[in-house]
Amino acid sequence: MDCREKTLPFWKEQLLVISRWYEKFEQESSEFSKEAGIRCPDGCGLCCTASYEPEVTLPEGLYAAWYILEQRRELEKRFSLLEGRSCCIFYDEHTPFHCTIYPARPLICRGFGFSGYTDKHGEFSYRPCRHMRSEEISREAKSGPVLSSFQAQVSFGSAYYPISDAIFHGWEKLLYLQEINGPGDQAS
User: What are the backbone dihedrals phi and psi of residue 118, each rounded to the nearest 5 degrees, phi first?
Assistant: First the structure.
């Protein structure tokens, strides 16, 4: 092996893999939404304000934490909202898409209302968000991205945690890695 060849730490390789799967998901869900004629109602954001938080894997939390450390450091103060939260701590009604981590949002956030599942017959099945107008949805859309297939690719065998908790743990891990590796090992 050439000593000049640099290899990435495992966690950075994970981030690259997740990024590629997110890009693929975005492409497939975009094609599906055009074909099916679906979109979120203007200004909605109700999926982000539910009284429960969706669960995501720790690698997805690490990916969002990396975004916070690299792009939006001011979002770190949102972790103080973990106790007593009533919805995702990254929800903000005054931002586009109501999400302060939109570019790094986990798959459940990317796919809610824009993906399907495989039914017991192995066929694609789509269930829209209840706030989407079902009369606008084209019945011609017979296939689209299957959310669980993409989640399997980015989970790396991890368990699922509430989104705010998973991102918090990812943030703590990145801070720890930066501390032990010194300032030269930024999250980028």
Answer: -95, 125
Taking only the tens place, the pLDDT of each residue in 7-36 is 667 788 889 999 999 999 999 999 998 888
Query: Is residue 23 helix, strand or coil?
Result: helix
Residue range 32-46, pLDDT digits in tens: 988 888 888 888 888
Instruction: Give me the helix-helix angle, 147-155 and 10-36, nearest 10°.
Output: 170
Write out the two tokens for 15. 């981030």
Coil, helix or strand at residue 117: strand
Query: pLDDT confidence of 169, banded at 50, 70, 90?
Result: very high
CA 29 to chain centre: 13
The residue behind tokens 């939260």 is 85
Token digits of residue 115: 């993906």
CA distance 66 to 170: 8
Instruction: Count Cβ atoms below 10 Å from residue 78 Cβ, excluding itself.
Output: 21
What does DSSP assign to residue 159?
Answer: P
